[in-house]
Amino acid sequence: MIKVALTIAGSDPSAGAGIQADLKTFAAHKVYGVSVITAITVQSTVKISDILKVPVKLIEGQLDTLLEDISIHAIKTGMLLSFDIIELVIKKIKRLNVPVVVDPIIKAGTGRTLLEDPAIDVVRTQLFPIAEIVTPNIYEAEKISGIRIASEEQLLEAAENLLKNGSKAILIKGGHLDSKNVVDLLLLKDGTQKKFVKVRVAKQDRHGSGCVLSAAITANLALGHELYESVELAEKYLEKIYPDRLKIGHGTPPINPFYNLF
What is the pTM (predicted TM-score) of this model? Predict the structure, then answer.
């Protein structure tokens, strides 16, 4: 039977990040993807110029309709935007006995805020505890932990701080760390840690790389892999597809989840 992964996130019309990137990544892993849209963005590879929050009642309807009909094997949360959306999502998914991957999206690569400040504490205190793994980037890890990250030692300090909030694991994505190589740090609740070190392919970022990594972890969890293995497989996948620079748009080029098909 085909496995199903659910993404709860915002829509990116340029299809480099958000719901669209998640669904492509699920499909690339031979996992069937379903989605609940929390926000509609006016977005390109260059900027986000507007955001429409989906009414909470419609988000609840999307969730209820899906969960009544389809068996879900893993869930990813992305852009949740506001306090009331986060509370609803927690209420609906915490009773499901499936792994949850939390990508605590706070700000877009272009600088636009994607999570209201009052909601950050709810993410930390209520969403983290139901997560199998939380996957912040450097900015998000700093914002939530309150720890400035300028070295690999501070990566570990921030990860230890974030792990105290109740998730089984923390993966801090170190792409924005000023270092020769890209270092992602995984820390598990039992103390296990691993650094995933990748050579920087180019100075230019890839639009949606964080979304794709967390979606790949979600897909691997849906397929039945253990948490540590799911992260390893996702990191290897990202390392393989990252150098493939899609010539789409005039801004940050999107990453290509379908590397093997193009």
Answer: 0.95
